[in-house]
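Structure ticket #2291
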Amino acid sequence: MLKDPVLEKLHKNARTGLYTLPKVRGMSTDRRFRQELSIQETDYRNLYTAAEEQNGGPAAQIGAFAKIRASAMIRMSGDDTSKLAQMLLLGSTMGIVDVTRALKQHPDTPPETKSLAGDFLAAQERNVEVLKQFL
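Resolution: structure written out below.
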């Protein structure tokens, strides 16, 4: 468990992205979409590492129920790029809401975590704009 609630949200979103994106990429047949997912996965990996470094060690891993739910959603989308993009777009939007809400609820968040949250939000907003192209 992370000590900082905003950092916990960031780490949770990064874990989810790192679990989901390789699975989605493996199902897609669209080369451009797969390339974009690789870029997003790198962003999530960097966020994950930064969150662990700020915490001073590893955080809890993604739970079994969350893995099952994510896998089921991916399978239901099939290999249709538009449906996969929609699912990821919704996930990015949920991440934006989660982190924004956590920042508002915890105004005493350390500056380095606020900076990381700002980077995360900018990346997620970019992801939303890029994913719209695949709908």
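Closing remark: The chain is about 80% helix and 0% strand.
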